[in-house]
Design goal:
about 425 residues; alpha/beta; 9-stranded mixed sheet; 6-stranded mixed sheet; 20 strands; about 35% helix; FAD/NAD-bd_sf; FAD-dependent oxidoreductase
Length: about 425
């Protein structure tokens, strides 16, 4: 694009910042527009995993029969609040449709194409920002507390294997040697070695943002309110603090993307999964790598000076108040996984160094929305990453930068198109 105006990226989380960084590498000037409070959202509160093997959609075959349980078990790993059910009906209908076996296979293939190169896509950004200390490559464990859970997870493992993921199965003894701090209640695990993690997602975001600024980018602490077009072209983004001229716009606003999409004449079936985390500060013991408790749907990740437990899905929208009982549930599960972390003492809320709740931008088919707007060719979408925002951020940024530059991206974007919601 031969235009001196900057590309405006709406969204200052990891997806937006990685997109801005790759745009700069392609020769574009960039402006990131986002509220400071929004930049403290899902990019900071995630489980810290950069997991290219995360190809299993949330909607798997048989999910329809699980919906009643989500309504009846308010403290289960996935819950739907009754009051929010009417709002969720369109999303749930597409969610159930996405669970058909043929669609699951296609979705997993698309996710692997995007996520498989995750660490490679991050590498040049880490090098530029001097941030290699913020990504560790030790793989991760999926641990099972029952034989039933291990057998029941074989469908997801088969999807991973079919997409080129190498999986090593560990019995109880091998698991003890691999991760001795993990409770002996676990009967086995599967190890995926290609995964990395960050011990401080907030520091990673800050370091990458600082590098964008060092290369001449601007970060505007404001909320995007309108996208100005002239004919079929974006010319500016309006915020609550003024107008930003734009040669192109990228919508990477996570859970807050849908209203901006509608301004461009597109439709998206989109909602938010409310996620929680808790942290045990200065734990006595920590795992050496992330460990997922398969039955509990909990990720335990070693952070700098703290042990984070992240997980659960709550479908309740953006406005409902947090249900901190879900965070307390995570804390109890974290103690069961690593009883030595608090020296054998059952943790109370006072042990919890941080209780956090945030919003995962979620599509029914677990695929983010990537690509050009259908009616405005210089507007681009990069949102809806659900559980894989940290993993997909750099790959997404590289892909969107290619599109903005008029180049062909490295992956097929048709599964991610906004057009699938028509």
């Amino acid at each position: 694009m031969n235009d001196s105006r900057p590309v405006v990226v709406i969204g200052g989380g990891l997806v937006g910042v990685c997109t801005a960084a790759y745009l700069q590498r392609a020769g574009h000037a960039v402006v990131i527009v986002d509220r400071q409070s929004a930049r403290q959202a899902a990019s900071l509160g995630n489980a810290g995993c950069i997991n290219g093997s995360s190809v299993v959609p949330i909607a798997m075959p048989g999910v329809l029969w699980q919906v009643p349980g989500w309504l009846m078990q308010p403290e289960g790993p996935l819950v739907l609040r009754w009051r929010y059910l009417p709002r969720m009906v369109p999303w749930l209908m597409r969610f159930v449709a996405a669970s058909q076996p043929a669609r699951v296979t296609a979705q997993a293939r698309a996710l692997r194409a995007l996520l498989g190169p995750a660490l490679d896509a991050y590498q040049p950004l880490l090098d530029d920002a001097g941030a290699n200390d913020l990504v560790t490559r030790r793989g991760y464990l999926i641990a099972y507390s029952s034989q039933k859970g291990m057998v029941g997870d074989e469908g997801g493992m088969a999807l991973r294997r079919d997409n080129g993921v190498h999986i090593e199965t560990l019995d109880a003894n091998a698991l003890r040697e691999f991760e001795p701090t993990l409770s002996h209640d676990f009967i086995g695990a599967r190890y995926i070695g290609e995964t990395g993690h960050t011990p401080d997602p907030g520091a990673l975001l800050a370091r990458l943002t600082a590098q964008v600024v060092a290369r001449g980018g601007r970060v505007v602490d404001a909320a995007a309110t309108a996208i100005e077009t002239n004919g079929a072209q974006v010319v500016a983004v309006h915020t609550n603090r003024g107008r930003e001229s734009a040669s192109a716009v990228v919508i990477a606003a996570g859970a807050w993307s849908a209203p901006l999409v509608r301004q461009l004449g597109d439709t998206v079936v989109f909602d938010t999964e409310r996620g929680y985390h808790v942290e045990i500060p200065t734990p006595h013991e920590m795992p050496s790598r992330p460990v997922m408790w398969a039955e509990g749907k909990l990720f335990a990740t070693p952070m700098n000076g703290r042990l984070r437990g992240a997980g659960t899905v709550e479908l309740a929208g953006l406005q409902a108040s947090p249900n901190w009982r879900r965070a307390d549930l995570l804390l109890n599960q974290l103690h069961k996984m690593f009883p030595g972390a608090v020296n054998g003492t059952k943790p109370t809320q006072s042990v919890d160094g941080a209780r956090w709740q945030g919003f995962r931008p979620s599509t029914p088919d677990s695929l983010p929305v990537l690509g050009a707007a259908s009616k405005v060719p210089n507007a681009f979408y990069a949102f809806g990453h659900g559980h894989v925002g940290l993993t997909a951020a750099a790959s997404t940024g590289r892909t969107i930068a290619a599109l903005v530059s008029g180049e062909r991206p490295a992956i097929d974007l048709s599964p991610f198109s906004i057009g699938r919601f028509r």
